[in-house]
Specification:
This protein is an alpha+beta fold. 24% of the residues lie in helices and 33% in strands. The strands form 4 sheets. Strands 6-7-8-3-9-10 form a 6-stranded mixed beta sheet, sandwiched between helices. Helix 2 crosses helix 3. The chain is elongated. The protein starts with 6 loop residues before the first strand and ends with a strand.
């Protein structure tokens, strides 16, 4: 990992007794980046962010921020701030008093505190009249904005977010996702965001890290992680996916027990003498009509149809197992469960994963 990273984690290990929660994490985050860490429950993402803000100590390894080692620095002396899932606002205080709280701890004058609080209300697009509003009178979305304003009052070098939107309803969550992305652009701050929601990560992030069993499985931009996962775990974690065991002989000829491969396919889909999984996302699989030709074909029967808003998903029962096909609602298939179908896809829509079959 480059020493030039703004936030640099070097071989971080965290143990709780005999249990290893983090196992040799190396990670670099750029200044001004919106970086999201995603993983299933128990993957280590919450432990990682607790180490970053100083709520827990590392067992071994180092954390550097802007060239300075901070893993041995107390949490209250680090130039960082955390926005918690619970928000941790003071219900007995007004909006203005909540925002001003970190400035009061720094013993800034009441006039300076009020000026800064009003500036942050403007930044978070809350009316200045909210300065005297009680927290208990605020909606869920307004409380989120107040928590962000209070975090920014610290003027931290980096902000950490621990699933701050997870308790909100879908519509409000989607609104705040866009507002967070916009706020990041307007402040230029470095955001490190923890979530279990792939949708949040895909919408907001510059880069995403996928965690599994205390390790970083892959770090990349959203499109690369979705389209070119490094492992079966990442492929399946990033959404619906079709995976087919496949190999190639020394000449590069493709070998599959399930797929019908187009004759003379001259595409280096699988390296010679390699074996693994051929991945294709459901939106790239097509129902084959008479006269159509695809690089890979597979026959089966319709097993189920599921409406997903603007999309329709079909499950196809085949010798390779259940295959998922996705179509726009306007292209809905005129077929019933049990009908025989052939599905196909082209090599340029696939990705080879050199992983255990």
């Amino acid at each position: 990992m480059s020493e030039k990273a703004f936030l640099h984690l070097k071989d971080i290990v965290k143990k709780f007794g005999n249990f290893t929660a983090l196992d040799g994490v190396d990670l670099g985050i750029h200044k001004g980046e919106f970086f999201t860490i995603v993983g299933p429950s128990g993957s280590g993402k919450s432990t990682l962010i607790r180490l970053l803000v100083g709520m827990d100590d590392v067992t071994t390894g180092e954390i550097h921020l802007n060239g300075k080692r901070i893993d041995q620095t107390p949490a209250n002396l680090r130039p960082t701030c955390m926005v918690f899932q619970s928000l941790a606002l003071f219900p007995h205080m007004s909006v203005g008093q909540n925002i001003e709280f970190p400035l009061k701890l720094r013993k800034e004058s009441p006039a300076a505190r009020r000026t800064r609080a009003l500036e942050l209300l403007d930044l978070l697009r809350l009316p200045q009249e909210y300065y005297d509003k009680r927290i208990s009178q605020c909606s869920g979305g307004e409380k989120q904005r107040v928590a962000l304003a209070r975090a920014l009052a610290f003027n931290p070098e980096i902000l950490f977010f621990d699933e701050p939107l997870s308790a909100l309803d879908y519509r409000l969550r989607k609104t705040l996702e866009k507002e967070l992305k916009d706020l990041h652009a307007r402040t230029g701050k470095t955001f490190v965001y923890i979530t279990h929601s792939l949708e949040e990560a895909m919408v907001m992030s510059d880069r995403i890290a996928i965690m599994k069993d205390g390790c970083i499985e892959q770090v990349a931009v959203a499109d690369e992680i979705y389209g070119k996962p490094v492992s079966r775990f990442v492929a399946e974690f990033m959404g619906e996916v079709n995976l087919f065991p496949i190999s190639a002989d020394a000449k590069g000829t493709l070998l599959s027990d399930f797929l019908l491969v187009k004759n003379c396919l001259e595409v280096n889909v699988v390296p010679p003498n390699a074996q693994g999984l051929l991945m294709v996302r459901p939106e790239y699989v097509r129902f084959v009509n008479d006269g159509e030709s695809y690089d890979f074909n597979l026959s089966g029967q319709i097993h189920g149809e599921y409406a997903l808003g603007s999309r329709i998903q079909y499950e196809i029962e085949t010798t390779a197992g259940i295959i998922t096909v996705e179509k726009l609602r306007e292209d809905r298939l005129n077929a019933s469960n049990g009908d025989a179908v052939t599905v196909g896809f082209n090599s340029n829509c696939t990705h080879f994963i050199c992983d255990a079959i």
